[in-house]
Amino acid sequence: MNETSATISPLAERLVAGDKRALARAITLIESDDPAGWDLVREIFPRTGKARITGFTGPPGVGKSTLIGALTAELRKLDREIAVLSIDPSSPFTQGALLGDRIRLTEHFLDSGVFIRSMASRGALGGLSEAALQAALVMDASGKDDVLIETVGVGQGEIDIVDHADTIVLALMPGSGDSIQALKAGVMEIPDIIVINKADHPMTDTMVREVRGALSLAQTPDDWRVPILRTEAARGEGIAELAVKVAEHREFIEAEGTLAERRARNLRSEVLGIATARLRRRLEAAIKDDPGVAGLLDRVVSRELDPASAAAELLEGEIDD
Amino acid sequence: MNETSATISPLAERLVAGDKRALARAITLIESDDPAGWDLVREIFPRTGKARITGFTGPPGVGKSTLIGALTAELRKLDREIAVLSIDPSSPFTQGALLGDRIRLTEHFLDSGVFIRSMASRGALGGLSEAALQAALVMDASGKDDVLIETVGVGQGEIDIVDHADTIVLALMPGSGDSIQALKAGVMEIPDIIVINKADHPMTDTMVREVRGALSLAQTPDDWRVPILRTEAARGEGIAELAVKVAEHREFIEAEGTLAERRARNLRSEVLGIATARLRRRLEAAIKDDPGVAGLLDRVVSRELDPASAAAELLEGEIDD
User: Fold this and answer.
1) Which of B50, B162, B206, B271 to mutate to test binding with chain A, by most A CBs within 10 Å of its CB?
2) CB–CB contact B156 A152 (8 Å)
3) At what angle do helices A291-301 and B258-289 cross, to 10 degrees?
4) In this complex, how many residue pairs, one in chain A and one in chain B, have their CB atoms less than 8 Å apart?
5) How far, in Å, CA of B266 to CA of B234, rounded?
6) Residue B267 to residue A297, Cβ atoms within 8 A
7) Taking CB atoms and an 8 Å limit, are B156 and A158 in contact across chains?
8) What are B202-261's pLDDT values in tens digits?
9) In this complex, is the C-beta atom of A133 within 8 Å of any C-beta atom belonging to chain B?
10) What is the model's pTM?
11) Do A278 and B41 touch (CB under 8 A)?
12) N or C: which end of chain B has fewer CB within 10 A?
């Protein structure tokens, strides 16, 4: 088509053609911080932007993985190609422990229209989120119709993967009192769709009322009315409606022009986030390897030099190397 | 005593002498990012390290402010001087809305042995945490025996103020299901003390059992056994025991040598956090003011240039100015 695609690498070519093994290989390169991974993302980036990106957030234990598994089954009925990316360290996807009633998720591993990948490591959250964003991009470029991202709703690293989503689904369950309080207090962002999973619980009606109360206090940025859905993901209940609402939200933001706005804002914050994470790693390396920097920190620990002055000295000495 | 104290500024002198108005002024300087605030922290930093720093974290609505108010009253009985710093945007301290049963907190405003200050602004969390750390340092230098820091338990900015504490208290209440799940899943750090507030609730026993269960799964770094306390902060119930446990934990880490270790690690991460936050602000300024950078981001939005390559270009061009 143009010069760029004429010189595309064999791996990128296979990836954009939808080859599943090329996708797996690409993500491994990204995950291991191989320069070839970054080169690949550079090559395929012009092919991104087509997939519908849906982020699932919420406290551990509410059944986000089961919900994503059930939604995947639903979307497969419509013949949509799905990629799932989990960066929730407590997720059964991430832990590879697909046992008990979770076994149903593994059925998707045999479906060529579904690609599931998890990334997790506590501690290195900056680098992890950065890698996850790149992984979402290659999933998008590989021709998936939907990229479903699972993340735990606590903690905001330097880059929040959920910020990359077009539609954000908050999953709760009866008993998610802390999340309700966080919504009410304005400490938690208002999502696009709220799902009350495990809705066979007798307290579900109370929970729906509380969520509605929390939403009524919130300022929503646009005219989208946040739906509150009841699901029993383990039995597939309410999942068809979730699929409809995800599609409706996407259509809504597309029609309003907010999809383009959201993506522009997200891409800008991605650039800033990646740059900041790299700077931080550079500083961390300097702290480890440079005896001068180690000495600087020792002076802080002995209370000779205050942290802010030490930070200023660190920035002067270490950045323009 | 030495050269440094001979040339100490009048404000620093008043601050270390325990002058309450000097402390208020110092924090205002820090909050408004006045260079005089940074100078002051530099001057007083050698006088820090004496106060007992206790961090209170937990979801909104569990009554952290009331708990801190009640603990303050308890510690005043022992004639300890107290400073309270709230950086929880949903806190009644922060909102200045000390109404209803919260009025009891205001009684401390009239007590010259108590200094209460809040800082809050959503969005600028990097800068806020940085300022909060400096505020905690001046509180410490002003001769307070206890610095009590209130923070909401969700979200981890670049610098987490709780990391500055010697003792971390997690406040929960019956119904804090999400936090229990987060503890169980290992997504939330294990605190030093857990308080179940609003313990007059009939579900308190269940809650205590669940917390105990979550703790039994966790790996604790040292031999400290995390106590689970029941309080009704609004009535002062269980607060004497909380005061005892805070003191015991402090003695424990002092005896084990982990206090020094903790503080050294915290100070190191503070330096890194401040440096990273400053770099991020520098980048943000470049993005706003530099037409070249704006053009770079436009190329990302139009999917010509991938985010990681844009970040690399940004770092090359903007850091060594």
Assistant:
1) B271
2) no
3) 120
4) 214
5) 33
6) yes
7) no
8) 999 999 999 999 998 876 667 899 999 999 999 999 999 999 999 999 999 999 989 999
9) yes
10) 0.88
11) no
12) N
Is the sign of the CA dihedral B121, B122, B127, B132 positive or negative?
positive
> Which of the residues B276, B299, B314 would you substitute to probe the A interface, choosing the one with the greatest number of A C-beta atoms within 10 Å?
B276
Answer whether residue B37 shows pLDDT above 90. yes
Q: List the domains of chain A with CATH numbers.
A: 48-256 (3.40.50.300), 274-318 (no CATH)
Contact A170, A153 (CB under 8 A): yes
* A319/chain B closest Cα distance in angstroms: 7
Q: Residue B156 corresponds to which tokens in the numbers above?
A: 């981890």
Q: How far apart are CA B283 and CA B252, in angstroms?
A: 43
